[in-house]
Amino acid sequence: MSDPFKEGGLPRPALFGLVGLVAISLVAVILAQAFGYKAGETPPDNIVEQRDLRFSDGNAGVVHVWDVDRAAMMDSIEPGTENFLRGVLRGFARDRRSRALDSETPFRLARHADGRLTIEDLATGRIVDLQAFGHTNVASFHRLLKLPVQAL
């Protein structure tokens, strides 16, 4: 078997291709920095609607939903319903327990100008973009933005 690089090293077209690739990469980085792009930076937060919520456990697996600003209960979620919502809350609760944080700090449910719906744990700073889980799952959280406070 013969060595393809024995005669003169790297073939000229391959060398020109590599130099071109490096040059294009450098130009792209310089242009991105010139126009203000920062890698890993989140887009500007254009929240158009938000609600701070607190969740508490009731009897027999019921979860109570509280509007923090009005200090009033909005809804009660019965066992076996809203399983996606319950799963997200369990994940947040597990995160809080692992950091030895209280359960009284609210969550911020927000609708953004681009239509995204997010929930943020104000105790940990963790944000979940709910759009990633599909329309029907997002609907269970979107409903909480529109719920009126219950008269007790």
Strand content: 15-25%
Oligomer state of the chains in this structure: single chain
Anisotropy-based shape = elongated
Query: Which strand order does the major sheet show?
Result: 3-2-1-4-5-6
Domain module tally: 2
Which residues sit in consecutive blocks of at least 5 with pLDDT less than 50?
none
Q: What's the gyration radius in Å?
A: 26 Å
Q: What does the main sheet amount to?
A: 6 strands, antiparallel
Q: Separation of termini?
A: 88 Å
Provide the succession of SSEs. HEEEHEEEH
Q: What is the overall number of helices?
A: 3
How many strands?
Answer: 6
Mean pLDDT: 85
Instruction: Provide the helix percentage.
Output: 25-40%
Structural class: alpha+beta
Can you lay out the helices and strands and say which pair or pack?
Blueprint: H1 12-34, E1 47-57, E2 63-67, E3 72-77, H2 83-98, E4 107-112, E5 117-121, E6 127-129, H3 135-146
Antiparallel strand pairs: 1-2, 1-4, 2-3, 4-5, 5-6
Structure description:
With 152 residues, this protein is α+β, with helices and mostly antiparallel strands. The chain folds into two domains: 1-41; 47-146, no CATH class. It is built from three helices and six strands. The chain has a six-stranded antiparallel beta sheet with strand order 3-2-1-4-5-6. The protein is elongated, with a radius of gyration of 26 Å. The model has no long low-confidence stretch (mean pLDDT 85).
